[in-house]
Structure formats: C-alpha cells, structure tokens
From TrEMBL:
Species: Candidatus Macondimonas diazotrophica
InterPro entries noted in UniProt: Rossmann-like_a/b/a_fold, UspA
Organism lineage: Bacteria, Pseudomonadati, Pseudomonadota, Gammaproteobacteria, Chromatiales
Limits of the UspA domain: 27-97
Protein name (record): Universal stress protein
Origin superkingdom: Bacteria
Pfam families: Usp
Gene3D superfamilies assigned to the protein according to its UniProt record, in alphabetical order: HUPs
Length: 105
C-alpha cells in the first residue's frame, strides 16, 4: 500500500500579533480609567463584532457597553449602519457611543 503524508503550513500566527497590538493599545486606557477609580476590564475576542460584544456583555452582566464611532465616508456609513443595528438589537443593556472627538482619558 501507499502512504501519503502532508503538512499544511499556514501564515505566521496573525491573530496572536493582532491581539498583542490591541492589548498594547487598550492597556494604557484601562490603567488610566482604573486610576480614576473606575472598575474597568478589557477583553479581546475574535469573531463578528456585534455577536462577540453582545455575547460578552451578556456573559458578564454588563450595565453599559461603550463603543467607539468615527465619522466615516458615505459608503462606510451605509455599511456601518447595518452592523450597528445588529449590535443594538442584541444588547440588553445601555450603550454609550464615543466619537473620536471625545477623549476617554
């Protein structure tokens, strides 16, 4: 009989690098808010944003979800509105939308 052995070699662990980059961006914000006396926890999850945000908010019993919003182009706004609607439909808590003009630190 014949035997075939194959090994798939994928790209470097892109998710791990992205997660590290996100953590480096988030950690200073979390530390600043905690220094102001707020109870803040940051989580990084992989998947469809609306589903992951809503699932995590539900899992932790969140009272408030804060999301960032920039001022996109007309096309991006059209695509973004459907995503935002999916998030709002899934959440069972309050939502605070921060624009890039409102510093959170």
């Amino acid at each position: 009989g014949a035997m075939a052995i194959a090994e798939a070699v994928g790209p470097p662990n892109v998710w791990s690098r992205e997660k590290d980059d996100l953590r480096r961006a988030i950690d200073p914000v979390v530390a600043s808010l905690q220094a102001q006396g707020m109870e803040v926890t940051a989580f990084i999850r992989r998947g469809a944003p609306a589903e992951q945000i809503a699932a995590h908010a539900h899992d932790m019993g969140a009272d408030l979800v804060i999301v960032a919003h920039d001022h996109p182009t007309v096309m991006a706004r059209w695509l973004q509105s459907a995503r935002d609607a999916r998030l709002l439909d899934r959440l069972q808590c309050s939502v605070l939308v921060m624009t890039n003009e409102q510093p959170i630190l």
